[in-house]
Design goal:
Blueprint: H1 5-41, H2 44-64, H3 69-84
Helix pairs in contact: 1-2, 2-3
């Protein structure tokens, strides 16, 4: 345990942010699985809906600092490419 009061506070705030980041990343993984399943199944309307939902969630994660903005942009580019592939 830390001896300094500020270090104790820092541990508490890190625990909160760790839990929040874990929840956000878990939600993103769930959305990714749903999107990939829709693309593989060839459900264009469902994939479009999930694409919007997933990219919105990615942008929010980047805004809050859970994910880096460049990795979010890379993921969005990959999603867009998968969505527009002719033989999905």
């Amino acid at each position: 345990m830390p001896n300094i009061k500020s270090a104790e506070r820092r541990i508490r705030t890190q625990a909160k942010s760790n839990a929040r980041n874990r929840a956000v990343k878990s939600e993103l993984k769930t959305l990714a699985k749903k999107f990939k399943a829709a693309v593989v199944a060839g459900e264009k309307e469902e994939a479009d809906k999930l694409f919007k939902e997933y990219t919105s969630a990615l942008d929010k994660a980047a805004l809050k600092g859970t994910l880096h903005k460049n990795s979010v942009n890379r993921k969005k580019a990959q999603l867009s490419k998968a969505l527009s592939a002719p033989s999905a």
